[in-house]
UniProtKB/TrEMBL annotation:
Its EC number is 2.7.2.11, 1.2.1.41. GO terms for molecular function: ATP binding; glutamate 5-kinase activity; glutamate-5-semialdehyde dehydrogenase activity. This is Delta-1-pyrroline-5-carboxylate synthase. The keyword Nucleus does not apply. In the C-terminal section; belongs to the gamma-glutamyl phosphate reductase family. In the N-terminal section; belongs to the glutamate 5-kinase family. Pathway: Amino-acid biosynthesis; L-proline biosynthesis; L-glutamate 5-semialdehyde from L-glutamate: step 1/2; Amino-acid biosynthesis; L-proline biosynthesis; L-glutamate 5-semialdehyde from L-glutamate: step 2/2.
């Protein structure tokens, strides 16, 4: 399971009240040494917002030396003659810079906070102060009094009078820079959280400027200490990332969670407190959490497991599926409890009825899924099938064989039963699989994933099927076009469009399920009624449910249209009409024909003939599933041949467009793409081909002496 930042922060953030925020010189100042007023303003607005929400904010600020140096350089320039400027310039004394900069920096904080109606205070400390126990007690009492009054204390090391020889070089003592000071204060003042703001997003595996460097979301010392390559230290401060990591690790070991994140972002502190996956988290229990698995590692593990799966004998792969089916049935009561919890949470959250309907595992669903898996297990072995044999030359035989695609990433919403279907198809086709379900089905997906992977033998490995638990992981996964071979999104048009725009990986899927039923003038009315009612009400939330009813104009004149409408209304179906139908039937006019209701609602419109129906479908449909009800075979053939949809039916409900009903055993989804697989995608849609060439010492050698025969051979020799 992929580790989720939110999973571990959610618990301890519930009790966070006192927060120490450390802002470094690189955040406080610009690259030219001047104060970054816009950045500081945005930072203080965050602190003001948190202060008003009841958080106790303590600020540790660097930057005094940098501000003082900039001011003293200017003063020196103003007071220098041309001759003075031509002489070698000595470096300014760091302590003098600190003395000048401290007052300037504090004046700025006071001014900016005053504009936000917040009172701040300054506390300057030195290393030697903390050797005095009375000082430490008084410090705590003073800060407590300030916080009780909603005052924000601002700490800085008093470099002007510090006994440290050189503030940028001497790292002796109880603390040695403002990062370690922030960690010490977090401990002394009993903070609940420490946030270290940097000029980068967090801790990377290498210098952030290097393209192969990856952001580390949760720091685990045993894993990351030897892997990280630090870049240069801070361009202006004395610490840099090395100092931040040391301070963060020490504070975390003492029981104070720490997040290193960007001080350049407008709302980074607020996002941390909301549990968003930003920056790098340090926590003393991090090593006890589920082992962090990055997107690439997860995909690579799935590929390695899939290769072990392919190496098994056919009967062994079949047995895995049978074991999965048995495990589902054996754990049905546990699955039901988790699913009911998801449904209850969705209802309480006010989700649409159509989503709740898709979320629920109705009675008999687990048994039905287990039955489908057993049917899939008994199907012909799909891997390694010889599709074509050709003799290229005497003794040189070429075979085209079926093989898995590799690693699939399936992103789906709402329906937990989709996880079972997809996982079983992946096992049958020999593919590795990464699954990301909707958050509304989190409990259901987790238990189903656990049950299924527990049935996978160690010789293959449970990492064959990975469950992605955090939405924030998706962008990283979509970048892995060298590891993931196909993405199949199952969900809203918005979801599919976002994924297509965000990846170079081939995407297979459909955006909408706007299915039509056209009732021709030649239709048997009783047949039409049955098909229309079934297509709409059998499962209104399904992507293959009828959304638009098209009726030949003659049926509007002979009463047949009214009968169809009455049948729909009797079943509780709400109706909207196109321009012609709304006027005739006195029903509200639809604003948009291209609309997927996913509920007990549909659109009705009148068309002149079959060609008008075809044009309407091409203009407003989604190329999913469309049906004609007609007795005139010529009209029916025209519809079947000319409607450019993935599935086109004659005198049959659109609800038949389903992998199980097609005899595919299950489906990963219904594709409206025009390449690779189209319609319900079963095992065959998850396969590709490769070439096997068997020779006997054959060489090309410029084709000299090779007599090509290119003879087709029987598949079985």
């Amino acid at each position: 399971m992929m580790e989720s930042f939110q999973d571990h922060t959610r618990d301890f953030l519930k009790n966070v009240k006192r927060v120490v925020v450390k802002v470094g010189t690189a955040v406080v100042t610009r690259s030219d040494g001047r104060l970054a007023l816009g950045r500081l303003g945005a930072l203080l607005e965050q602190l003001k917002e948190l202060n008003s929400q009841g958080f106790e904010i303590i600020l540790v600020s660097s930057g005094a030396v940098g501000v003082g140096r900039q001011r003293l350089r200017y003063r020196k320039l103003v007071n220098s003659s041309l001759a003075d400027l031509q002489k070698p310039q000595n470096e300014l004394d760091g302590k003098a810079c600190a003395a000048v900069g401290q007052s300037s920096l504090m004046a700025l904080y006071d001014t900016l906070f005053s504009q936000l109606d917040v009172t701040s205070s300054q506390l300057l400390v030195t290393d030697s102060d903390f050797r005095d126990e009375d000082f430490r007690k008084q410090l705590y009492d003073t800060v407590q009094s300030l916080l009780d009054l909603r005052v924000i204390p601002i700490f800085n090391e008093n470099d002007a009078v510090s006994t440290r020889k050189a503030p940028y070089e001497d790292s002796s003592g109880i603390f040695w820079d403002n990062d370690s000071l922030a960690g010490l204060l977090a401990l002394e003042l009993k903070a609940d959280l420490l946030v270290l703001l940097s000029d980068v997003e967090g801790l990377y595996s290498g210098p952030p400027s290097e393209p192969n460097s990856k952001l580390i979301h949760t720091y685990i010392r045993a894993k990351h200490q030897a892997e990280i390559t630090f870049g240069d230290k801070s361009r202006v401060g004395r610490g840099g990332m090395t100092a931040k990591v040391n301070a963060a690790y020490c504070a975390a070991c003492a029981g104070i969670p720490v997040v290193i994140t960007s001080g350049f972002a407008m709302d980074s502190i607020i996002k941390v407190l909301e549990g968003k996956r930003v920056g790098t988290l340090f926590h003393r229990d991090a090593h006890l959490w589920v082992k962090q698995v990055g997107a690439r590692e997860m995909a690579v593990a799935a590929r390695e497991s899939s290769r072990r799966l392919q190496a098994l004998q056919s009967q062994d792969r079949r047995k895995i599926l049978l074991d999965v089916a048995d495990a589902l049935e054996a754990n049905e009561s546990l699955i039901k409890v988790e699913n009911e919890a998801d449904v209850a949470a969705a209802q309480e959250a006010g989700y649409a009825k159509s989503l709740v309907s898709r979320l629920a595992l109705k009675p008999g669903k687990i048994s039905s899924l287990a039955k489908s898996i057993r049917i899939l297990a008994d199907m012909e072995e799909p891997i390694g099938q010889i599709l074509k044999r050709t003799e290229l030359a005497d003794g040189l035989i070429l075979e085209k064989t079926s093989c898995p695609l590799g690693v699939l990433l399936i992103v789906f919403e709402s329906r937990p039963d989709a996880l079972v279907q997809i996982a079983s198809l992946a096992i049958r086709s020999g593919n590795g699989l990464l699954l990301k379900g909707g958050k509304e089905a989190m409990r259901s997906n987790a238990i189903l994933h656990k049950v299924i992977t527990s049935a996978i033998p160690d010789t293959v490995g449970e990492k064959l099927i990975g469950l992605v638990t955090s939405r924030e992981e998706i962008p990283d996964l979509l970048k892995l076009d060298d590891v993931i071979d196909l993405v199949i999104p199952r969900g809203s048009n918005k979801l599919v469009s976002q994924i297509k725009e965000s990846t170079k990986i081939p995407v297979l899927g459909h955006a909408d399920g706007i299915c039509h039923v056209y009732v021709d003038k030649s239709a048997n009315l009783d047949v039409a009624k049955n098909i229309v009612i079934d297509a709409k009400i059998d499962y209104p939330a399904a992507c293959n449910a009828m959304e638009t009813l098209l009726v030949h104009k003659d049926l509007a004149c002979n009463g047949a249209l009214n009968e169809l409408v009455v049948e729909l209304q009797h079943e509780g179906v709400g109706l909207f009409g196109g321009p012609r139908a709304s006027k005739l039937l006195q029903i509200p006019e639809t604003r948009l024909f291209h609309h997927e209701y996913n509920s007990m609602v549909c659109t009705v419109e009148i068309v002149d003939d079959v060609r008008a129906a075809i044009d309407h479908i091409h203009q407003h449909g989604s190329a999913h599933t469309d049906c004609i009800v007609a007795e005139d075979q010529k009209v029916a053939e025209t519809f079947l041949c000319q409607v450019d949809s993935a599935a086109v039916f004659h005198n049959a409900s659109t609800r038949f467009c389903d992998g199980a009903r097609f005899g595919l055993g299950a489906e990963v989804g219904i594709s409206t793409s025009r390449i690779h697989a189209r319609g319900p995608v079963g095992v065959e849609g998850l396969l590709t081909t490769r070439w096997i060439l068997r020779g006997n010492g054959h060489v090309v050698d410029g084709d000299q002496g090779v007599v090509y025969t290119h003879k087709n051979l029987a598949l079985q020799s």
